[in-house]
Amino acid sequence: MNGTLDKRTKWCYCIGATGRDAAYALISMYLILYVQYTMNLTGVQFAAISAAMIVCMVWDAVNDLLMGIIIENTNFKMGKFKPWILIGAISNAVIIVCLFTIRPSGWGFVAFYSLFYLLWGMTYTMNDISYWGALPTFSSDPKVRDSLVSVMSVFICMGQFAVAGIVPIVIAGNAVSAYRTVALVVGLGLIAFQMLTAFGIRERGRTEREDKLSLKDMYRIFARNDQLVAAGIANIFFNIAFNLLIVFGVNFFYIEFGYSESGDLVFVFTVMYGLGMLISQASYASVAKHFKREQILRACFIGLMIGYAAFFSFGYVLPRNIILLNAIGFLIFFFQGLMNATLVVMINNTIEYDEARFGERHDSVISAVRSFSVKLAGGLNQGLSTLVLIASGIYAKTSRISALEIDVSRGDITKETALASANGYLADVTSMQRLLFRAGMIGIPVAAIIISYLILRKRYHIDEAEYGKLISHG
């Protein structure tokens, strides 16, 4: 497994990430905003939906581990990973379109949304665990793995940016129909890109297990791998911070700059997101050649602390300048991207650690920890973001905008009328509400990053030298 990776597999695998991460970005960044700004729900109904999302995400995080066992025990003619990549992509695309198209009202929407969000998580898991589970099987050569992560990360950023950049421009004053159209395009893109992966990659041959893995086996694999536990917990806290700024970001721009003006401003900020993530993750392999992972993590931690402190100070201590705000955003996203790529490699390296110590290799089960941590963090993010929106009083102000968007979709009022009224609602947000919102928006990610960094510093010890020993004895 230490050999080179054929070009067809490399490019079909990496390019396929574009569609799947565009789909994930639509759900993780904009689904709750779609509910907030188009459904006209009461505060209790909005809180109920957020609670349902938390329950679904926690279950889905557990389901990730179960899916790892199912894939590990898979013996299809098409391969171990490819059937689940394809089945997951097609079914998930259908669910995404339904989430943004079917619109019962009130508690009926709460019930519909809860069920389909659960189905979204389960179908995405099929694709996600199989896709990421394939990565460590291609090669154990650290240079090949670093290069693959870097190239794949470029296409991940392209997919995320395509959604994160376009959606804010097209939704204001036309949100109901715009979200529906975006969901259809993203769903078709998910299927197309993942078909490229499923039919393009070449899975390596493997020795079939005579016995099948069970839940007890899965627990045993996790319990004995102290490095996997450390990296997994650190990844949970990191992912709480990873997308929270973007989740809060649209509300931040609406509050600070108005509903009608924020589309273009969010787009430019999203460009910073795309550039920061793209440059950092594309350069990871090169950076890893010159610096140790411990040095990279330290630089990321310092850079993120500076970036978040500057963001909190924007408009209070620092001048209220858009160019400065985008520069701060770029700084945060660059170091987030670099830290994310580092964590992906650190989790994958625990596979060889487990193999060297216990003579067993479980790519799918161990790779499921990355998805588990992302999903669990996503559930926590939904709860935390809802708590901040309600506690700060922001939701009470913004929920009135959803009625305007519904009226536009029915043709009862014009887009211009809706935008003017929405700006008026947001002008009522008080200085204290803005401060409380920003404190939650910045304080939660900072705390999560500090915890993540300390765990890695204290508990994770597979450095470059140690990993070299592991694969030399494999």
Task: Give your account of this protein's structure.
This protein has 474 residues and is mostly helical. The chain has a single domain (7-201, 214-472), classed as Growth Hormone, Chain: A (Up-down Bundle). Helix content is 83%, strand content 0%. The chain contains 18 helices and no strands. Helix 3 packs antiparallel against helix 6, helix 12 packs antiparallel against helix 13 (322-358) and helix 14 runs antiparallel to helix 17. The longest helix has 37 residues, at 322-358. The relative contact order is 0.15. The model has no long low-confidence stretch (mean pLDDT 86).
In total, how many beta strands?
0
Count structural domains: 1
**What is the radius of gyration?**
22 Å
Order of helices and strands: HHHHHHHHHHHHHHHHHH
Helical run tally: 18
Strand-residue proportion: under 5%
Secondary-structure blueprint:
Blueprint: H1 7-38, H2 43-72, H3 82-99, H4 106-138, H5 142-171, H6 175-200, H7 215-224, H8 226-242, H9 244-257, H10 262-282, H11 284-290, H12 293-313, H13 322-358, H14 363-391, H15 394-410, H16 415-427, H17 431-459, H18 464-472
Helix pairs in contact: 1-3, 1-5, 1-6, 1-15, 2-4, 2-14, 3-4, 3-6, 4-14, 5-6, 5-10, 5-11, 8-13, 8-14, 8-17, 9-10, 9-17, 10-13, 12-13, 12-17, 13-14, 14-17, 15-16
